[in-house]
């Protein structure tokens, strides 16, 4: 029996109904039908297929609409794997036909699990804390996108009606003092009407050191333009609402960050990550979600390739050869490493490295991105070193068995 599994169950997940295809190790169809997205029907199918042997459940989406099948499969003791969408589409091209149906996709998933196990990705075992952390980080990403949208709207309005004022307030639009001024006074007309003294009394409350200087810059910018651009009056009514909206989004994002930090405090790898230059709460949470405990990567090079940071070798005969930047990889992890490397420039050692590479003629990104090896190595080796004990009330879950080793089935 190949890899010890008796059934390879491919699930093309959906909102109301999935499509399930079960294959035996020799490719015989054991099941091929639609499957309602309910716990009862999922358990019935898993129990039925378990009579043929240990079941490997493979999904095309482990989160959102695929979360319930993954949870039920784990509860029944079956191991769960994930086939990425791009890999599934490329494998589907190798099968005859060009149809795109749920039944065909489910068969492709099951057949890939049977014949191409190296294409599968592990779905981390049920760590409730990590699942909650993923929800919070996703919520924070939504707030970040909303904050960017509203701030761009504010800057766009200011650029339209008063470019000089935007040059002063735009770069500081997330600052509490700027948001308070826009909320209480509005645009250029309201700011000029409020006067220097009132603006200073508002700004210094939220920016004691920068307040007076900010007001001077605002008054100087207002004096640069004497004409009134059409649309200014409407912008005067919209800007306070946008400022209030942005302030609320930033406040909620701070609250989510506090909840993420409290959850990170209970994770044994969080202190290892946050102790490294450039890694804060949000970056550490993203790295943990994408990497897990790191045991899936035998070497730091494997982690670099997974993140899309390792150079790709291209050779063909004697005319084409060289190392090229990768175009793939885990985009979220690559972005986390990039942000960490950029923030690490405040560290003297990281800044010295960056300056040395810039002096060698490298561009900004090329000088910046080699820094992540210094981050990848501690992340990769931290699980083996196990520098911090696991909290007694929440033992750290690990997937100690590889995909090819079937677990026991309690169902």
Automatic annotation (TrEMBL):
<dbReference type="InterPro" id="IPR002525">
    <property type="entry name" value="Transp_IS110-like_N"/>
</dbReference>
<dbReference type="Pfam" id="PF02371">
    <property type="entry name" value="Transposase_20"/>
</dbReference>
<dbReference type="InterPro" id="IPR047650">
    <property type="entry name" value="Transpos_IS110"/>
</dbReference>
<dbReference type="GO" id="GO:0003677">
    <property type="term" value="F:DNA binding"/>
</dbReference>
<dbReference type="GO" id="GO:0004803">
    <property type="term" value="F:transposase activity"/>
</dbReference>
<dbReference type="Pfam" id="PF01548">
    <property type="entry name" value="DEDD_Tnp_IS110"/>
</dbReference>
<dbReference type="GO" id="GO:0006313">
    <property type="term" value="P:DNA transposition"/>
</dbReference>
<feature type="domain" description="Transposase IS116/IS110/IS902 C-terminal">
    <location>
        <begin position="272"/>
        <end position="354"/>
    </location>
</feature>
<feature type="domain" description="Transposase IS110-like N-terminal">
    <location>
        <begin position="9"/>
        <end position="163"/>
    </location>
</feature>
<feature type="region of interest" description="Disordered">
    <location>
        <begin position="356"/>
        <end position="411"/>
    </location>
</feature>
<protein>
    <submittedName>
        <fullName>Transposase</fullName>
    </submittedName>
</protein>
<dbReference type="InterPro" id="IPR003346">
    <property type="entry name" value="Transposase_20"/>
</dbReference>
